[in-house]
Amino acid sequence: VQLQASGGGLVQPGGSLRLSCAASGNIFSVNVMGWYRQAPGKQRELVANMHSAGSTNYADSVKGRFTISRDNAKNTVYLQMNVLKPEDTAVYYCNFIGRGTFWGQGTLVTVSS
Q1: Are the beta carbons of 5 and 21 closer than 8 angstroms?
Q2: How far is the CA of 32 from the CAs of 8, 17, 21, 28, 112, in angstroms?
Q3: What pLDDT does residue 28 have?
Q4: 24 confidence band (pLDDT: 50, 70, 90)
Q5: What does the alpha-carbon distance between residue 23 and residue 32 come to, in Å, rounded to a whole number?
Q6: Is the model's pLDDT at 26 over the cut of 90?
Q7: What is the rounded distance in angstroms from the CA atom of residue 106 to the CA atom of residue 113?
């Protein structure tokens, strides 16, 4: 499985960004797609993920601000990030769990004035 992520960038505090990640290859229909992030000097952490059946998980720090969604027909997962804070600054990695675990290349999100 190959993952192609896009949508990172520089945004001011309080702003919004939308990340996208498209999966291709040998995709098992039952899977979990989501996003992790890693800030400088910190461990990689789960941001949000979504099962192909629709259930979701969110980190407490992003609940109410981030929304994960997916288009199963396109094998694509989205992360709408609103009310961004400087502490959201990190490299965001797309993640796919099916018959194995796969990672995208990472996209940098910088929240700064």
Answers
A1: yes
A2: 21, 22, 13, 10, 31
A3: 81
A4: very high
A5: 11
A6: no
A7: 22
